[in-house]
Design a protein that fits this description.
Layout: E1 5-12, E2 15-20, E3 25-28, E4 33-36, E5 44-49, E6 55-59, E7 64-68, E8 71-75, H1 77-80, E9 86-91, E10 97-101, E11 106-110, E12 115-119, E13 121-122, E14 125-126, E15 132-135, E16 140-145, E17 148-153, E18 158-162
Antiparallel strand pairs: 1-2, 2-3, 3-4, 5-6, 6-7, 7-8, 9-10, 10-11, 11-12, 13-14, 15-16, 16-17, 17-18
Length: 171
């Protein structure tokens, strides 16, 4: 059966992380070998690296995992308020993680102190599902949602929403 991949991240010139269905692992490009992580036993919906070199794995069922050197940390609703169902993540220049969730909008998570805020009101519209978050050159976060393109100014958390009324095209 073919391997279903959901995410990937280059570690260095010789290795690559992958988020296969079941649990993530590492690919050694030189030796052409693959090994799975024993710690994380779920599909990694996205894999990112933060400014401090920590690797973050989002999952659609078991929350958020981080790996720094050999230390693994698991963040869940119970221990941090982080959603258990995360589609993707973005790490900004300040080290804040922005989590795109299935049901909780965007979660703004500060890993160094555990502070977590939920942002789900965009221009007066409640948005639960967020698919992807990126940042532009002006420091504005753009989020793909079923309702349109949501924005957050990460400096003051001001939000807005662009919809078909603003010219977005829906097919």
């Amino acid at each position: 059966a073919p391997a279903t991949m959901y995410s990937c991240l280059e570690l260095d010139k010789n290795s690559f992380l992958e988020g296969a269905q079941g649990r993530p692992g590492i690919v050694d490009r030189v030796r052409k070998r693959f090994s799975r992580f024993e710690t994380v036993r779920t599909t990694a919906s996205s894999i990112i690296r933060d400014r401090n070199g920590a690797i973050w794995y989002t999952t659609t069922s078991t929350g958020l995992w981080s790996q720094k050197d050999t230390l693994w940390t698991h963040y869940t609703t119970a221990n941090s308020g982080v959603s258990m169902q995360i589609k993707s993540a973005y790490s900004d220049a300040d080290g804040v993680l922005w989590l795109a969730t299935f049901f909780n909008g965007i979660q703004r998570f500060e890993p160094w102190n555990g502070k977590m805020d939920e942002i789900n009101n965009f221009g007066g519209s409640k948005i639960s599902e967020v698919r992807k978050i990126v940042e532009d050159r002006e420091g504005i976060l753009w989020a793909a949602t079923p309702q349109g393109l949501a924005t957050i100014d990460r400096r003051n958390l001001k939000t807005s929403l662009y919809t078909v009324d603003d010219g977005l095209d829906y097919d």
